[in-house]
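Q&A log
Question type: sequence-to-structure
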Amino acid sequence: MIIFETNMGNIHIDVDIDKAPITAQNFIDYANEGFYDGTIFHRVINSFMIQGGGFNEDMIQKSTKAEIENEAKNGLKNNKYTISMARTA
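Response status: OK
Response body:
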């Protein structure tokens, strides 16, 4: 489990390493390396979604690693209370 500590409380996240092993490990690696430290939720749509992790509080975009394989056809859905990583293509 990964725990994001925010000024609005903690967010507890379980990752599905079985159905999305590449994406899950990528997310875990970013978290363990401190990539998300000091980032903000830069896009908030009430009752729909929040997006974060890509910018710091000065709205400076964070540099990311190389693109990973798209695992979108793994059967997982973007349902309420799920997280996903943005696709670039």
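Response note: Residues 21-32 form the longest helix (12 residues).
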